[in-house]
Amino acid sequence: TYCWIHTTFSIENAWKKRVGEEVPYPGVDKTTPNEKRVYHAYYQWVCFVLFFQAIFFYVPRYLWKAAEGGLVKNLILGLNRPILGEDDRRGAINLVTDYLFRNMSLHNTLFLTYAITEVLNLINVILQMVLIDRFLGGEFSSFGWEVINFSEWDWSVRYDPMIKVFPRLTKCTFHRYGSSGDVQRHDAMCILPINIVNEKVYIFLWFWFYFLAIASALALVYRALTIFYPGMRVVATHSHCRISNPKQIKEVLKHGGVGDWFLLDLLSKNMDPLNFRDLIIDLKEKIDMVKDSKNGV
Predict the structure, then answer these.
(1) Are 143 and 206 in contact, with CB atoms under 8 Å apart?
(2) 156 vs 149: CA distance, rounded Å
(3) 144-166 pLDDT tens trace
């Protein structure tokens, strides 16, 4: 109990010694002068760290939901259902068309907010990887690679790298008073069964964080393409609604900003394809009517 509450340690020189012949367990050996110790105290804080990490992962989503305010849900108007009465369907499409036409070039702030949250996603996962690396004494950054390479090591020098990061048996020093009042130093061993769970949690997090970092970086590359290459916007929206005409989508996007495309792209993901196709047709007709009136046709 004392060792569990206080910090335990392992002896660095004992990691690679032969178990059963030289040491009873990796990192556990007799006390020697000038030995280098690796202290373990993280296991008391794992649940709290994971809780706060989860909160920070939710922050970008919360910011986006607060900025979006249910706009897409309100614009759907039941058009995400494939079966809808014709009068209701046409009425809803007309309402959405009028909204999009009247608010052209007014959705750039919405797009900027979403782009910022995508940047925050990448910053968040990188900072959390650094945080865990420091939390685990600098062992997390290479943890996954060492576990992957573990099966390829020669049996004569093979030891589980997870045991080094998450030892199940450690050393602990505490002091008691003897019968004469002298302080007696006790060198004991402490069992840490919780590390059997911790090692599984963090090996999963290692692979998951690397996946999230790569996915977030690719998302930023995609976002940059949609900003600087307008043709990418047409391709992206058409990929969500194959039955729509890409030429019509291109014509509609010519008369709006990147924010208008972003809102249309969100609608294409949430609407029934037939309804979104009709929305594009109606929106193009409205734009053409305004162009014709300006040209005196």
Answers:
(1) yes
(2) 15
(3) 777 777 655 444 444 566 777 78
